[in-house]
Design brief:
Elements (H helix, E strand, L loop, with lengths): L1 H17 L13 E12 H6 L13 E5 L4 E6 L8 H4 L6 E11 L2 E10 L7 E2 L2 H9 L8 H4 L1 H10 L14
Parallel strand pairs: 3-5
Antiparallel strand pairs: 1-2, 1-4, 2-3, 4-5, 5-6
Length: 175
């Protein structure tokens, strides 16, 4: 009986360690590293230039994370496809938060891709999907799947600047 119990505990521990619910999910990006840490949520322009509007700009500014060693990370991505992490981090502006995600190290830039967060000491994680929830509400949509194909503002920008941000560059047709 004791041997069976030990085996059952070992299996549960192995499954727990392998489960993505306990750590950020890798996305197969060059230079990625799973990173879970505490940091202070900051408005990047405020941190870098001293331009500090109230409430981190109310969702209209790029937010970042300052780690305890003073490292400033750009929090550029959330769990919603083609969406940033600003709406997920905004409620914690100026506060400490525990984050779980991926640090992407590239010679040109180091960025952070937020997958989930919580207040320090909290037991429950919150998935970084605030953009999708906000988009569904603003567009009276049941889901945010492929939101970028259905978003009026995104389509206006693509019509004006092209799919790669320059109207003179046209990507080859997909196969």
């Amino acid at each position: 009986m004791g041997r069976f119990r030990s085996l059952a505990v070992a299996v549960v521990l192995c499954l727990s360690a392998a489960s993505p619910s306990f750590a950020a999910q890798k996305w197969g990006i060059d230079g990625e590293m799973v990173a879970q840490f505490e940091a202070k949520v900051v408005d990047l322009l405020c941190e870098l230039r001293g331009d500090c509007p109230k409430a981190c700009g109310g969702g209209k500014r790029q937010l970042g994370l300052v780690r305890d060693d003073g490292t400033l990370l750009l929090a550029v991505k959330s769990n919603t496809l083609f969406a940033g992490a600003t709406l997920d981090l905004l409620p914690y502006c100026g506060e400490r938060v525990e984050v779980d995600g991926l640090i992407i190290s590239h010679p040109a830039m180091v960025i952070y891709m937020l997958q989930r967060l919580r207040k320090p000491g909290a037991t429950e994680w919150v998935r970084a999907t605030a953009f999708a929830e906000d988009w569904k509400q603003r567009n009276n949509a049941e889901d945010a799947k492929r939101w970028f194909r259905r978003d009026g503002m995104a389509n206006d920008v693509i019509r004006t600047f092209g799919k790669v941000g320059r109207p003179d560059i046209v990507p080859p047709p997909s196969e």
